[in-house]
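RECORD TYPE: protein structure
NAME: UDP-N-acetylmuramoyl-tripeptide--D-alanyl-D-alanine ligase
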Amino acid sequence: MDITAIHQIFLTCTSVTTDSRNCPQGSLFIALKGESFNGNAFAARALESGSAYAIVDEEAYAPEGDTRYIVVENSLKTLQQLANYHRRQMRTPIIG
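PREDICTED:
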């Protein structure tokens, strides 16, 4: 899925979160990885807690046919691209 399509999904969501313990209703969960955790493992919990969609980068965590999961190559890179794309859509000058 390209960043334009992901941005369209983002626009339907109430917020973006990377913390499965705090998933407001209708939010977009983005599964990030760290040294001691794999956010993909928490995607199902995020959806159960209220997220509308979950971006994951490991297909094993996305049940086949569940359209709430968006599988990408790299979740962190997708988050960065989404932020950049959204900022460009706003056409606001960036200072600093």
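COMMENT: The chain has one domain: 3-90.
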